[in-house]
User: What shape does this take?
Amino acid sequence: MKKILNVALPKGRLGEKVYAMFEEAGFPCPSIKENNRKLIFENEEAGVRYFWVKPSDVAIYVERGAADIGVAGKDILLEYRPDVYELLDLEMGKCSMAVASKSDFIDDRKRTLKVATKFTNIAKDYYAKQGRDIDIIHLNGSIEIAPILGLSDVIVDIVETGATLKENNLVVVEKFLPISARLIANKANFKFKSEAIEKIMLSLNESKEKKDD
Ligand code: PRP
Assistant: This one.
């Protein structure tokens, strides 16, 4: 019996682009394009099963082996440090991790800095390297509101186009970490399904290089 490759895709715009790359790599599953609420799609003939999960959950499925491979942002990998193989930088979904504040914020380095973020570990690492005392405020979304309402001095968050910051009258203090989507694999499953995984890896790498030409 042919081994089925389980692939966790990040739900949303990035996931659709990623699926298109997998299709090109020889792992099509046409039913995924049907517009419905289904989350799991299988093509036995091609030996693949896709499932849509929240982007921040991809690494959990892969680490625990429910998915053999998946696509996750470098931000998630640095924040949660899942025990997975990082196989390839897909150079998609590019953005930066940044510190931002209100434009009139003046930092007094003698004071503890209040930092609101979803990325607690990344923020702690960043300020630890500077020897800066911080008070971390963990939020789950709409981080941009925190400095406006005085909940924090700065935020550490993802910036892509900069539109969200601009709309909320915030400015970038420093972009300190480039982020992009990575192909990841479960360590044990990688051994059992190395042929299919390597095929996908090579093909994704080729289509990446084509894009660069
Ligand atoms: C991220 C981030 C910013 C926004 C930045 O949120 O938290 O709010 O994107 O993008 P921009 O620079 O292009 O405006 P996301 O859309 O991932 O959703 P979230 O609020 O659930 O984190």
Remarks:
- The CA atoms of residues 98 and 114 lie 15 Å apart.
- The pocket of PRP is lined by residues 141, 143, 157-164 (CB under 6 Å).
- The chain has a mean pLDDT of 94.
- The radius of gyration is 20 Å.
